Amino acid sequence: MKLTVRPLRQAALIIVDGEVDTTNSAEWEKGIDGARRRLSDHLIFDVTGLSFLDSSGLSVLLAAAVLAEAHGARVHLAGLQPRVARLLELTGTVRVMSIHDHVDQALAAVERVRGPASIEPA
Fold first, then answer.
1. CATH assignment of 2-119?
2. Contact 118/7 with Cβ under 8 angstroms?
3. 91 backbone dihedrals φ, ψ, rounded to 5°
4. CA 110 remoteness from chain centre
5. Taking every pair of C-alpha atoms in the chain, what is the biggest distance, in angstroms?
6. In whole angstroms, what is the distance from residue 54 CA to residue 18 CA?
7. How far apart are CA 50 and CA 88, in angstroms?
8. What is the pLDDT of residues 58-114, one digit of tens each?
9. Domain range list for the chain
């Protein structure tokens, strides 16, 4: 798994490549926590390169979504691959996250909620 983080004003863009499973879910959690400057930051995940997500990775993602929602923010997933999308659908996790086809759509969703300055680079 490779994580790349791009901080934005009121959000963080997290690009994920590879697989997230029990061998690296702690690293996944640490990366998500480090990407968030404030608990009220939206988290935008570009998951076009995420080829596999197991239950441990799903648990981390769900915890991030619950924490974001508790602070008035949201987790946005962009570019879901069919295998990962199926897991989110089967577990109902898809209901606590915003799903987008592309990162631009996720950025626009955050902008609608927070205003245009929210997606500028920090």
1. 3.30.750.24
2. no
3. -90, -10
4. 12
5. 38
6. 12
7. 13
8. 999 999 999 999 999 999 999 999 999 999 999 999 899 999 999 999 999 998 886
9. 2-119
